[in-house]
Amino acid sequence: MNVINPAYATDDNDIINFGLIYRSQWVGAVGSPTTGSFFAHSKFGNIEGGISIVHDQIGDVVKDTNIFFDAAYVFPVSENTKLSLGIKAGLSFYSTDFNGFVYSDPLPDPAFAENINRVFPNFGGGAYYFSDKFYLGISAPNLLKSKHLEEGSGIVIEGSEETHFFATGGYVFDINEKIKLKPAFMTKAVSGAPLSIDITTNALYNQKFELGIGYRIDDGISGLFNIRVAESLRIGYAYDYTVSNLGRFNSGTHEIMFLFDLSKKGNGYDKSPRFF
User: Fold this and answer.
1) Cβ proximity of 142 and 54 under 8 Å
2) Number of structural domains, the chain?
3) CATH number of the domain that 64 lies in?
4) pLDDT of 233-264, one tens digit each?
């Protein structure tokens, strides 16, 4: 969550959370994207801090690595609720490599003749309102628009990364002593693209097994599971199938995740963690 919202708060001073996620999107499509992510965050008093590293790759041509640091301050609002306000700042390392392309003669687009290596600074912000039972968040992780390609050699070539806005929310229902149910949503808005809305429902059994289903309106359906394989380690898998026309050209999206909790005091893992 802290990848898209720097205000995300674990609200646990004793635990450092780590995560590794690998996502292979639109498997079977030529030049399909892949994403590898690492994150770590923890709370120190009223300050929540973290780091996220996200590497996106489109085929063998485009690579984009983002390294960001997060900081948030957590305010008590009432006896049971808190508000976290956070910022993130970092660098994006963007490169293209067209050396492996076999071109026709004449070259159809001179843009493909030039490799690019650029570094872009960026920053973002967010707010996160939560209790032990629910959360609501809004964020914009990249407030600066980045032009990846620009005028050169007399040719105007432009590609930019627009600001993304996110809204998230969820609520945890205790069905009984062993089962928890969490409906949630995530909305993403970006200029030039349709509004993206994800609706999910996850169930947690005995703090060990988690199953979930999701639907992205007019785009895809998904399913996930994860299991606590050790006191401090959870391993999960998710599958996303595209129901739009794009689904005819790929066999779906696969995601693998490893989530690790490290105790600062050597007291083991959090035996009753929040379900978000």
Assistant:
1) no
2) 1
3) 2.40.160.40
4) 999 999 999 888 777 778 899 999 999 998 87
